[in-house]
Amino acid sequence: MSNPGPKDRKNSKTGQTAGTLFVVSGPSGAGKSTLCRRVVENTGVCLSISATTRPAGGEEVNGRDYYFLSRAEFEKKIADGMFLEYARVFDHYYGTPAEPVLEELKAGRDVILEIDVQGAAQVFAKFPEAVGIFILPPGEAELRNRLRQRGRDDQATMAKRLAQAQWEIEQARQNGRYRYSVVNGDLAAAVREMTEIIENKQRIRK
Question: What is the pTM of this model?
Answer without folding.
Answer: 0.83
